[in-house]
Write a structure and sequence with these properties.
Length: about 80
Amino acid sequence: MSSGYSLRIQEANAKASKHKLGVRLGRLCIAQDIPVAVVAKCTGVTRQTVYNWFCGTSIPQGTPAALIAVYMASLESSVS
């Protein structure tokens, strides 16, 4: 696991439903060590909101959800 994220965040993300968009984003960001601040800036939300998505305690909706889909596609293509 990544050293850029606290153990609490990593564990919460690992336990959360992989079917949630924010959790999937979190797994990509943790694996690639992408800072929460970068995700927050790209999606126009606070870092706390991003942490909530990563832990599965809230679900991205509206514009942030659309931006996440684009952001995730770019992350996934960079891994391929």
